[in-house]
Amino acid sequence: MRTSLAIVVIALCAGAGACAGGAKDREFGPSDAQAIRQISGDLETAFNAKDVDKILSLYTDNSVFMPPNKPVLRGREPLRSFYNSLLSANAHDLKVTADDVAGHGPIAYQSGTYSMMNGDKHDRGKFLFILRDLAGKWKIEYTSWSSDLPPSLP
After folding, report:
1. pLDDT value at 109 more than 70
2. Digit-coded pLDDT (tens) for 20-60
3. Number of domains, the chain
4. How far apart are the first and last CA of the chain?
5. Residues 85-94 as b or e (16 or more Cβ within 10 Å = b)
6. Is residue 19 part of a domain?
7. What share of the chain has pLDDT > 90, as a percent?
8. How much is the pLDDT for 154?
9. Which CA distances in Å does 72 have to 27, 45, 64, 96?
10. Of 15, 26, 111, 139, which one is least surrounded by beta carbons within 10 A?
């Protein structure tokens, strides 16, 4: 009886240990990289369609957003206000080019370049996304970007 109980306990502990390390220890593969590249394409499409709800669906609930020359924004509601303001000021024609995608376990990054029209002014620069795999779906958790153009003077 004790031997059977010991075997059951060992099997349960081994199973629990295997489950605990599953997501974080899993291999980052080509399908993950493709899913992450799709996110930047989806962001471009939603931005150009002025679909703020679709844009927000690409981010985690606790996202950290670091736009140039502005304070850090945390969470979806500040992000909603930011995108509503940007898009109502006639930002359009966003083009996102993902250069690098890599990751390990549930964390990945994507970096590349962007260009867009902000009203009648052209902007271009670089971006960095840090993404998290949440239950099999990649979401943007951190965003930072900066323009390659000098700041405009008032």
Report:
1. yes
2. 444 556 789 999 999 999 999 999 999 999 999 999 999 99
3. 1
4. 83
5. ebbeeebeeb
6. no
7. 75
8. 66
9. 32, 24, 7, 22
10. 15
String of DSSP letters for the chain: -HHHHHHHHHHHHHHHHHHHTHHHHSPP-HHHHHHHHHHHHHHHHHHHTT-HHHHHHTEEEEEEEE-TTS--EESHHHHHHHHHHHHHTTEEEEEEEEEEEEEETTEEEEEEEEEEEETTEEEEEEEEEEEEEETTEEEEEEEEEEESSPPPP-
C-alpha torsion sign, points 140, 143, 148, 150:
positive
Contacts of 52 (CB under 8 A, 6+ apart): 46, 80, 83, 84, 87
In a domain, 54, yes or no: yes
5, part of any domain:
no
In a domain, 152, yes or no: no
pLDDT greater than 70 at residue 16: no
pTM of full prediction above 0.85 = no
Indicate if the pLDDT at residue 2 is higher than 60.
no
**Domain residue limits at 115:** 28-147
Q: How confident is the model at residue 103 (pLDDT cuts 50, 70, 90)?
A: very high
